[in-house]
Amino acid sequence: MFTQHRPHDHVFYRNPTKYYPEADYGQGIYIIDTEGKRYIDGCSGAVVVSIGHGSEKVKQAMLEQADRIAFAHGSQFTTRPAMDLAARLVDMAPDGLKWVYFLSGGSEAIETAVKMARQYQVDRGVPSKYKVISRWSSYHGNTLGALALSGHTGRRKYYQPLIQHTPHIAPAYCYRCPLGRKPESCSLECAEELEKAILYEGPDSVSAFIAEPVVGATAGALVPKDGYFQRIREICDQYDVLLIVDEVMTGIGRTGRNFGVDHWSVTPDLLVCAKGLASGYTPLFCAMASEPIHKAIREGNGNFVHGHTYSQNPLSCAVALAVLDTIEENNLVQRSAEMGKVLLKELRELYKHTIVGDIRGLGLFAGVEFVQNRETRAPFPPQHKITNRITNRAFEKGLIVYPGSGGADGVHGDHILLAPPFIISREQIADLVAILDQTISEVSSELTQEDLI
Length: 453
Ligand SMILES: Cc1ncc(COP(=O)(O)O)c(C=O)c1O
Description:
- With 453 residues, the protein is α/β, with parallel strands linked by helices.
- Helices cover 35% and strands 15% of the residues.
- Helix 3 packs across helix 10, helix 4 packs across helix 9 and helix 12 packs across helix 13.
- The chain is globular, with a radius of gyration of 22 Å.
- Pyridoxal-5'-phosphate binds next to helix 4.
């Protein structure tokens, strides 16, 4: 039976039957609810809060910009914060990405990049190219277009009749290599899958390939083997296919470099970023494009046939500038790299629990995958709800982790993401891991022998 937890509460929650504590205020890596309970924000909400909660500097920037002008429509004006932020991002991004289109959601930014790719193909005179290839065990957003690209069975299931069929290839998932390889026998066959897919689909029809540099939500910080993205770039070049990197989670320092692809010195044609850009202080994302894409559109149609009400919002751009200042002044990208190593080292202690199958990550972006049998790497049956049990128990204990399931084959697989704000200290990492350790101990001890077969 449905219980309304609070009378007069008409918010349509993600899970209408769940009781959500009321967040009162945020301070550094902590969120404090109205009952006074303190939580370690171990995953920055959903890998969002890069600089931590409660920044005075961001508050001041917000006030100053709101005092001048909070909104000017992107079809009528430009603004100083939008221009300054675009210039900053071009400086930070891989060489060649020169144009920045601001949006207010990750899915919106993904669809913008896909539409830029498509209009580029039409405007340069290759209208046959329209398909976008993506990967299984990936996530690119929940709007119908972005969901079509996402390779997550659970998130797609309900909406299947509404989503367009698009080609997907195997992920670069070393712990569960979909092509049956071991690290020693791997020749990046998963990258070669892209070439096969392009040939099957017909190179004349393929506009772009999209991938997350390190897969986040749907598989728990999957780091590809070195060489993977370089090979992907070569294949894209060979078949005149654009490379779109989805840095919605990995962008702006999360993996210890400005962008995830910086680890492999790859320049994409389009880059989508990032939750951490405004660090949760305002909704702001962007799609960045190379000069050839911008040129084809400006010299072709002349207009990018697209737009959203809050594109280039000056208040959001001013906030993001203050976030980037904070990151730069405090060397937070470097800190994400350093603290990421500390986090991974501490997390590896959790291998003492037999249900921990794999621990992986890059920078402050780490995943822990749970298995029923460590030797065979067999995942738990989904009805065991291991991820939920771990996530809920950790939450009760004051630690927020990001849950994920279905990574192994779309249905099976349990993992959590740890991605705390970049300001986390060594002591706070120790606290985080201690709570997680206790959580896994308790959940493990509640599993019966049958659960573990
Ligand atoms: C890699 C990636 N792309 C796109 C999205 C969609 O972003 P949003 O939830 O802001 O629409 C997400 C959200 O988690 C994501 O992780």
